Automatic annotation (TrEMBL):
GO molecular function, one term: ATP hydrolysis activity
Keyword Transport included in the entry's annotation: yes
PROSITE patterns: ABC_TRANSPORTER_1, ABC_TRANSPORTER_2
Name of protein: Fluoroquinolones export ATP-binding protein
Length: 303
């Protein structure tokens, strides 16, 4: 799959402190990429480098094949960005806001403005004053602004910030449709891990200036799957499971092992029954992204 944004060995030093320590990752066309990091991980600094607000100390950022440092103008025209709540003029209509921002980008026509209005679903309210918009509508208008220049990569920092549950779900569905229908690469940072889990194809988990894991959400969670054994007597079962598989401990009255193949589980179950252990339940459980995040970062606070 075509790569649209490539980050290679990027470092950032401020004063004598190295904030970003050799980041490398890429975005693919048509995917939603989650960017997670606790406080102080360097997530915001990384986003600022991606959109050209600050320069990396070393390393390379390429957008659609253009070097962000050496070919800044060509590279940055492929990026659209919204950081938290977009800054809009409340005394102007949505359309007038977009006209104002369109003047800053050469070649934006009224037809293109109409296209992005329809894309974000604001056609029924676009001529109303922005001060009458809900927060979700303002977020959509901000994204419309970011889409005016037909970017290839869209960076959204906390796009669901302040939205109610219905607004969060609508924003999630909207972001997924941008990736699938418009084939945009969308990088999303959010502290709502449950939303990242539902929204993203891949995630990068950052800690202390480094990416500690990057993979599909499904694969990350599958790796941490656990098998819960409801057994009696538990001491006999514990000894058998220790011999047959990796026993992780005991939780809520059940023994917990790593999740292995169906053949291994069947063999363990047979050994337990042969030893006279009553097995009342075998359950496979996947962790949430929040569980995984806490395990990988050692319980650091999410940004």
């Amino acid at each position: 799959m075509e790569e649209t944004l490539v980050v290679q060995h990027v470092r950032k030093t401020i004063g004598k402190k190295e904030i970003i320590k050799g980041l490398s990752f890429s975005l693919k066309k048509g995917e939603v990429f989650g960017f997670l990091g606790p406080n102080g991980a360097g997530k915001t600094t990384t986003i600022r480098m991606l959109v050209g607000l600050i320069r990396p100390t070393s390393g390379k950022i390429s957008i659609c094949g253009y070097d962000l440092q050496k070919q800044f103008t060509k590279a940055i025209q492929h990026i659209g960005c919204i950081v938290e709540n977009p800054e809009l003029y409340p005394y102007l209509s949505g359309w007038e806001n977009l006209e104002h921002f369109a003047r800053m980008v050469p070649g934006i026509t009224a037809h293109r403005i109409q296209e992005v209005v329809e894309l974000v679903g604001l056609q029924n309210r676009i001529h109303d004053l922005v001060r009458t918009y809900s927060l979700g509508m303002r977020q959509r208008l901000g994204i419309a602004q970011a889409l005016l220049g037909k970017p290839t990569v869209l960076i959204l920092d906390e796009p669901t910030n302040g939205l109610d549950p219905v607004g969060i779900r609508e924003m999630r569905q909207f972001i997924r449709s941008l990736a699938e229908k418009e084939q945009l690469s969308v990088l999303v940072s959010s502290h709502l891990l449950s939303e990242i889990q539902l929204m993203c194809d891949r995630v990068a988990i950052m800690s202390k200036g480094q990416i500690i894991r990057i993979d599909t959400v499904e694969h990350l969670l599958q790796e941490q799957a656990r098998t819960y054994w409801s057994v009696d007597p538990i001491d006999t079962a514990k000894q058998i499971l220790q011999n047959e598989t990796t026993l992780l401990g005991e939780k809520d009255g059940a023994l917990v092992t790593i999740y292995e193949s169906n053949e291994t589980i069947a063999r363990c179950n047979a050994r337990l029954i042969e030893a006279g252990v009553y097995v009342s339940g075998i359950e496979r459980k996947l962790p949430t992204l929040e569980d995984l995040f806490i395990e990988l970062t050692g319980g650091e606070t999410i940004d």
